[in-house]
Every structure is written in structure tokens, then in C-alpha cells.
Specification:
The chain is α+β, with helices and mostly antiparallel strands. About 25% of the residues lie in helices and about 30% in strands.
Amino acid sequence: MITVYLTDIHEMPDPLDAPALIRPLTEERRDRILRCRRAETRRLGCAAGLLLAAVLPAYGLNPASLLKGPQGRPLSPGTTDFNLSHSGEGAILAVSDHPVGCDLERLRIPPSSFGRRYFSDEEQRWVCGQPGNRQAEAFFRIWTARESYLKLTGEGLTVPLHAFSAVPGAAGCRIVRENKTEDCRIWQSSVLIPDSDPPSSEGPASASSIRPGAEASSSRYILSVAGPASSAAPRIRRVGFRDLLTLIRKPEMAENALTRDESTVWL
């Protein structure tokens, strides 16, 4: 079973102003956060670190003792695997009893040259074949599918960009490599994550943002999770950063705080 934990930096203070936020994190992550120049980057790095610090111990893993593989992917002892991703103002952590990869991207207008540069011919045809108002979403479905697959395998950028294709379909997104369908599946969903500030002109397209009230807005993100083809659909659990801090202090509360599934529509 794959479980995806989702958090955001909405209402999270800058770690420079609230240093207690990063105390539970590993020394490496603390140093990385403090070297960031932008407050939003520091907050996002803190959110990702809090996910690791709060969730992994519930699976018997200690973030501080994990080793990294040749491509920088953390190595999990035993059968539990996990993968982390963040974008915009959200972060996700996928945990599974099988190899897993995940990717999260805020929906926005992509540079026109990216598809030609990074996608296979089949992927480009699929994106161009979507209605004009859905092509940004189609682009990021392909992008996140590719990223989650490469994180699943641990190969990273060692794989040539055109060596495989992500092919969305009615049964989810499949990976075709060397004319063979890989024994994995990519689940994809569109999720809303609160904005700390109104989206900028370079941020999400206007169609991807909603404003339920004068003081709040959310942006749409594409979330992709890669796992074995035989696995059941992942569960998504949304956890606020304050809840993560509580779990770090009181890990015995994990059974209640980490078991609330969010209703999910898979694309």
C-alpha cells in the first residue's frame, strides 16, 4: 500500500523568525534551509523536513540515520521505501512497502520549448492533442509522470530524456521503454493547495486558481505517484505543519493524526 502525506506552508512562519521549527530536522537539512535566500524556499524546505521527521518514525525509520545512493536517493533499510517532493507551497512524502517515487508540480504555463526538449515524440503528440485550455495540465501530467518514474527507479538523470515515454490512459499512466511497457503504474491527481500570497503573473494560470473568499486562495497542483503495477491506488493524507510539530513531540498520536484519508479523484 502506498500512502502520500501532503502538507503546505500556508501560515508557516519563516524559520529565521521561528528557529524552533527546524530544530527537529537533521543537521544537513537545517544547514540547507538556512543557506536559502528566499523565505518561501526556507519555509518549503522546512515543510519537507517536518514531513520526514514526523512521518518516518511511524514506520520505524530515523531520518538522521538514512544513507544515500549514487544518485542521492535516500536508502531505506528493510522493506519500507519513501520518496519526497515539493513545489510552490506544497510538499508530499510517499511511503510504501514497495519501491515508490513521487512528484508534485504547481500548475502554470510551461515554457514553449520544454516539451520539445524533454519529451518523446509520443508525449509531445499527446500534449498537443489536448484542448488548448488543458495543455498546461497535460504538460505537467507528463512531466510529473516522468519525474516520479525516475525517482522510483533511482536512475535520475542518468537515463537519456528520450529513452522512455509516459503514456496516460484510462487505466492510469504507463511507462513505455525500449518498446516494452514497464511493470509499474503512475497514479495522478489534481490537488488544491492554499497560497500564502496571491498568485503572481508568473505563477499559476488564472484557470488553475480559485478564490473562495477575499482572504484566501488556492492553486492547483499535479501530483504523480509511481509504484508497482499490481499495487492498489495510493491514499492521500493531508497534514498541517502544526500537526506535524505535534507528532514530533508526541509520536504516540500518529495513529490518529496520520490515518485521515482525503477523498481523491485519480486522473
